[in-house]
Design a protein that fits this description.
Two copies of one chain form a homodimer.
Chain A: E1 5-10, E2 22-37, H1 45-57, E3 59-69, H2 75-93, E4 100-107, H3 114-127, H4 133-139, E5 148-156, E6 159-168, E7 181-186, H5 192-205, E8 221-226, H6 243-263, E9 271-279, H7 282-294, H8 296-303, H9 309-317, E10 329-332, E11 335-339, E12 342-343, H10 348-355, E13 359-365, E14 371-378, H11 382-389
Parallel strand pairs in A: 3-4, 7-8, 9-13
Antiparallel strand pairs in A: 1-2, 2-3, 2-8, 5-6, 6-7, 9-14, 10-11, 10-13, 11-12
Helix pairs in contact in A: 1-2, 2-3, 5-6, 7-9
Family (chains A, B): Belongs to the ArgJ family.
Site (Involved in the stabilization of negative charge on the oxyanion by the formation of the oxyanion hole) (chains A, B): 105-106
Pfam families (chains A, B): ArgJ (PF01960)
Chain lengths: 393, 393
């Protein structure tokens, strides 16, 4: 964990199992903070509250999260409950209210059982520890199968700096501005405004480039906290000689978490990566990559290990972007299936074998320009249907 | 069948089973024609050829269709093959080439086995008969389970007029400008240009309002042919006293076919109808209806008979349209689950019982204005995954 951060989790009774459902990240000092939030019109109550907190002085010291209940579409009571969580956490950890962020994930439209939540918050300070990252990660999961966390280390101004991150995902994943829940921490010294710019840019090419099912959640949020305790003297800005390294580390953590969410999509058996090159604009590359990764037919074909490239090109063609219909190349891993928009004879059993793997990379070269983008997703399986036919009941 | 039309079908060897795979609609006289075509950038070869035919004098006399092979992404050879089909049909039926339209549906990216197709076209004239509609319908199906056809009768200028239609759908259904394959015929007297305007308007509120899987095909097309043999003297225009009746009949046929395609979506167990009212604009109503009907999570919940309205409101919120987050009502059939954006206590077993039915109607009232729209789709099931995990192999 980056210096200055501790974390923890416990079971307060929101989940039916005994898995943790309440987690917290705590910083020794008020950390510089930045956040990105869902563009869904029905933004959940805790997002408003967190946004309000960060707005006061660009800082957060305590980040509280519960799973099992999204506190979304819960009206005035939901707003009061999110504020109640914030006040209780401020008291439990002895910090000002505006230094507390709160977020929730789970079922939409049900009121939080506040006695359980408040009881949990009271006990939370005793559960917080330097190696509490795994407990925190367990506490934020819903239908996720695996915990998603990573940490990188680099040198800034001669000092060792860490950037860590954790995330939850699984379903209702088609982020717009942010993803389900992502938490990043660093001990680098960097101002909130700069951190926000960095987060915006990285989010666009990582969290915003994944999809599980095309559904944008009401609760998407990525929060970054920077303790500044690494000891790098100057605050980081793009003019700093080590900025490029810091940005690369930050992007690595974002991309790692985004891919981890996609790989652990509901019912998924594999990670699919769609790499679009040769586009005229960055926007076109992104739109096409996201259209292909979001296609139910492409996803089903990957599940069935069927090298059905016709579905890939149909998705390329419906992305609403300029495409030269005579110049498209498509490869599945190293296997070329389409060159200059003409079918190539390929070894079907070899292609099927490749598609059976845990990682499928679909390369689409438009041969029109120099822009590129990558998107990540997963296959569409029986288990996705099973999980979502009875998520709530 | 409207006066002047005959139809037929046969098996020429494109499908592995013995089901018909080549069909034709023939008119006694050159019929006034209109068409709408997919906006997918990779428009299939036969669509170009049909467009070219209609462009010559706004007429078609023979409409040829094959299933089992889409003749899409097949390059110059595909274009030659589509022209070869047109030339062969012109010869077999003794009409000028530009009076022949051709279309194809099936696997993308494989060349048509032309000897089989040409052999079939040669035998086709003997299969054509006044009651050949069912044979034609069988010939256009791929993964469809049921044939889709209807006919209405109305009075125009004192004469009995018929409007008939047939369609195929099932997968890769998310039409943009047109749907998979739709064929409409009428014996009304109406000019091609007027027919085209009518078709555009009706398509926007029928064929363009359905989705099975969000994937827009390369081969979508709806073609209308009007024989003019009903005997109505004046050509129909919006100024004609019976225009409203004709338009309503035309719309009824379009909507009937659109709903039939949605109900018979790949793996579907039920038809889902999403009705959005109280929108500020028609565009907003349509966009929201299509977003809800396209949500994999909403579709899975309907399959599982789970009254998970949180997914419905999340989809409403991500449609990119203005929404007042305080005023939304949602009903499942007659069961109110959300009023003024606040959850209503409802009878869960009753709601589950309703959702188990073959038709689920989701009502969303935005309470912002007077515009409305309806979209149709189907549930997402194990069978959708099964069918699409191994469509081609």
């Amino acid at each position: 964990m980056p210096q200055g951060f501790r974390a923890g989790g416990l079971h307060c009774g929101l989940k039916k199992t005994s898995r943790f459902d309440l987690g917290v990240i705590v910083c020794e000092v008020p950390a510089q903070a930045a956040g990105v939030y869902t563009l869904n019109a029905f933004q959940a109550a805790p997002l408003h509250v967190t946004r309000e907190s960060v707005a006061v002085e660009g800082k957060l010291q305590v980040m509280l999260v519960n799973s099992g209940n999204a506190n979304a579409c819960t009206g005035k009571q939901g707003d009061q409950d999110a504020r109640g969580m914030r006040a209780a956490a401020a008291e439990a950890f002895g910090v000002a209210e505006h230094l507390v962020g709160v977020t929730s994930t789970g079922v939409i439209g049900e009121l939080l059982p506040m006695p359980k939540v408040l009881g949990g918050i009271e006990k939370l300070p005793q559960q917080v520890k330097a190696d509490g990252g795994e407990d925190f990660c367990q506490a934020i999961l819903t239908t996720d199968l695996v915990q998603k966390m990573t940490c990188v280390q680099l040198t800034v101004g001669g000092k060792t700096v860490h950037i860590a991150g954790s995330a939850k995902g699984s379903g209702m994943i088609h982020p717009n501005m942010a993803t389900m829940l992502g938490f990043m921490t660093t001990d680098a010294k960097i101002e909130s405004a700069q951190l926000q710019k960095l987060l915006n840019g990285v989010t666009d090419s990582t969290f915003n480039m994944i999809t599980v099912d095309g559904d944008t959640s009401t609760n998407d949020m990525v929060i970054v906290m920077a303790s500044g305790l690494a000891g790098n003297d100057e605050s980081l800005t793009p003019e700093h000689p080590d900025w490029a390294a810091f940005e690369a580390g930050f992007r690595y953590v974002g991309e790692y978490l985004a891919k981890a969410i996609a790989r652990d999509g509901e019912g998924a058996t594999k990670l699919i990566e769609v790499s679009v090159t040769g586009a005229e604009t960055q926007n076109a590359a992104r739109a096409i990559a996201k259209t292909v990764i979001g296609s139910s037919l492409v996803k089903s074909a990957c599940f069935g290990a069927d090298a059905n490239w016709g579905r890939i090109i149909a998705a390329v063609g419906r992305a609403g972007q300029p495409v030269n219909t005579e110049t498209v190349d498509i490869r599945l891993g190293d296997i070329s299936v389409l060159e200059q928009s003409r079918p190539i004879k390929f070894d079907e059993p070899q292609a099927a074998e490749y598609l059976k793997g845990e990682l499928v990379v679909i390369h689409v070269n438009l041969n029109m320009g120099n822009e590129h983008a990558t998107a990540w997703g997963c296959d569409l399986t029986y288990d996705y249907v099973r999980i979502n036919a009875a998520y709530r009941t």
